[in-house]
Amino acid sequence: AEEGVGLDEVYGFGEGLVRNLGTIGFTFRAVGDRLENVEIGKGIHGEPGVYTMPACGDFEGIVEFLLKKLEKCVPKAAEVVLLVNNLGGTSKFLMGIFLKSLLDKVKQSYTVKRIYCGTFLSSLDQAGISVTLLNLGYSPKLLQYLDYEVTVPSMLFGRKRCNLPPSAVATVSQIEVLQSSSGVPTCTFTEQFGAKLASTVITFVCEALISCKDMLNTIDKEAGDGDTGSTISRGAQAILDQLNANKLDLTHPANLLQQVSIILERDMGGSSGALYSLFFQGASKIFAEGGDQRVTLNLWSQALTAGNDTIAKYALTQLGDRTMLDPLREGELA
Q1: CA nearest neighbour of 203 among 237, 232, 251, 155
Q2: Whole-structure pTM over 0.70, yes or no?
């Protein structure tokens, strides 16, 4: 664009770029000196992978598998740019081991002109890595573009990074555990809103969400990536699992909502998991600060508002932005 070319040419260049690169990722769980639950093709929002591999002691087999797939997109002997992306929860130690193993193999088939290794696009704390190969044969200007000076604060490419003053950088403080000094929230369920009813409601809601998985995915395909149902059902199933294992506090709503928040952040994945986690953390504060009150419909209404306020605060969104917050805000008026 800075060279004065038209929008159509920029668009065409981008389309050609996509045809000349390949990307594939995988997730795993490190257990001692072994890699378990290796899932290749896992989506950035937690969508199931297309291949699984048996537990292994190193990355060798994984690297060979990935490169066989990437060779279908980028022919051997090409000059390439290599990007190794941390999906969020992989330690620097394991990233270094993987990069060494990958480079040993890549250099046997390609001429590597640039290497980028770091966290460029993550999915919260998902333990995994993605690999991208870009064929420089597509355009002689690719390296020039990659080395361009940039002023985007989060951009890691280019010769120059923009360093903003501390006052211009937004920070998010850690959300503390909202409990009283005794360790147990003082708000408790009444007989009307007892543990049995709480269990029934949680079960009904989670089972309903799981049953709507395919329908929600279909709706999401119209304007998104078609994974909303899968993401939400994964979170709902995780909550059900904890409920059935008797690990949820059905007596104190502040504890219960915090537990749900932690489950969604850990198991739901994607941006939705983070946002719903914030929502339940914010809602729990109403009950944690409720003194010796019994749980009432009015407190639940306040909790809904507090949860919505928390999303608005950290996601920098408001009613009318056509986000998930819109229907939640409408719920305050019901």
Answers
A1: 237
A2: no
